[in-house]
Amino acid sequence: MPVTKFQVAEKYDYLHGFGSYHESEAVKGALPVGATSPQKPAYGLYAEKFSGTAFTAPRGENLQSWLYRILPSAAHKPFEPIKRLGNTSFSQPLHHIPNQLRWDPFNTNVNADWTDSLHLVCSAGNPCMKQGLGILIYAAGKSMETNEAFSSADGDFLIVPQQGVLDIQTELGRLLVRPREICVIPRGTRYRVSLPGGSVRGYILELYQGHFQLPELGPIGSQGLANSRDFQIPVADYTADTETEWHHITKFNGEFFTAKHNHTPFDVVAWHGTYYPYKYDLGRYNTIGTVSYDHPDPSIFTVLTAPSDHQGTAVADFVIFPPRWLVAEDTFRPPEFHRNTMSEFMGLIDGIYDGKERGFSPAGASLHNIMSGHGPDAEVHEKASNEDLKPVKVGDGSMAFMFESCFMMGVTDWGLHECKKVQPDYSDNAWGALKPSFDLAVDRKTE
Ligand SMILES: [Fe+2]
């Protein structure tokens, strides 16, 4: 299956290519040629720089775009603090717990829009210091108001829809994002989310530090995993509204503020650069695995990675477990038992994950924090230890994913208590039935 067969048809045009320098104009001639900031930009537009890295970041990491818009984003009233329905979780204390945690499917609040429905489940680090990440659940029932926009100054949002279609209008253009697609909305990008098909639910990794990259391919070669050309970037699309009062809500160090504009923030007529939103169809992932014995580490399933300052160690990896063939001989095929120095937050978009046949449901989640032992449940272990090792396709109709981080995750009060979804008996249910099968009568080796 080279691409996902979506139930809702695509309706927007896109540019293609992860990390490429792109340009787009909704009006011919709106993009200046050569210079970026002419004395008088075409059509009376304002030129505005939008940076995602320091100006002096190395060329390979440098993310900057130039926007040509009807009014600059500076033209607004002062921001004022607001308290929204659900988002107090962003300022809650964190609980660091060595136990395995698993959540039943999170509830959708039909009265909440995108902004109201955001809840922080767990996090590490601090947006102020641009360190770490947050893991959020969204579960909304209605579109944002027609004159409302949202942005986060705290980090990049990697959005993983589990249910429902997101129609996202951003400053740089529009994206339609459906379950089995993901999108990344960079820090500071203003956007509005409408729900053409009703309720939506999904997961977000907010990256406080750096930006996502494609993983290195090493001996795999020049193509494989998520291919650059499959990432889709919106084309410039603007509205010309300088009459309506708009509200811009921003998340700033976990607090929410709002400011009034007397014009739409979606007035970018043309843009060029390297700092932009993008989306990706997980069905296009080129999955790689063993064709002999043992299975490689799950890093082989990395779609996007956000590296730390230490080479090969990620602040966050986004990893998927797509449908794939298992052919390994004399091999225990499900994910093995393990304890890792990385913490692992897993979610399930649909279907059944091959390592956990019961209790891990679509829209649910699990967190196996640093050095928290886990692996296949007793039932899966028994079955996999005795099955006939013919080639078999696993994960058909399923898509599980993992947010993996080098940091220890702390869980908010919302994640631990208020959501009321933590499974109290997860550990017992998963591994309580494991029995030793070691032959106690075996002779100890003596020299
Ligand atoms: Fe794991």
TrEMBL record:
One of its GO terms (cellular component) is cytoplasm. Pfam families: HgmA_C (PF04209), HgmA_N (PF20510). Residues 284-437 form the Homogentisate 1,2-dioxygenase C-terminal domain. The active site is at 295 (proton acceptor). Its cofactor is Fe cation. GO terms for biological process: L-phenylalanine catabolic process; L-tyrosine catabolic process. GO terms for molecular function: homogentisate 1,2-dioxygenase activity; metal ion binding. Homogentisate binds at residues 353, 374. It is an enzyme of class 1 (oxidoreductase). Its EC number is 1.13.11.5. Residues 14-282 form the Homogentisate 1,2-dioxygenase N-terminal domain. Pathway: Amino-acid degradation; L-phenylalanine degradation; acetoacetate and fumarate from L-phenylalanine: step 4/6. Fe cation binds at residues 338, 344, 374. Keywords: Dioxygenase, Iron, Metal-binding, Oxidoreductase, Phenylalanine catabolism, Tyrosine catabolism. PANTHER family: HOMOGENTISATE 1,2-DIOXYGENASE. NCBIfam families: hmgA. Belongs to the homogentisate dioxygenase family. This is homogentisate 1,2-dioxygenase. It comes from Trichoderma harzianum CBS 226.95.
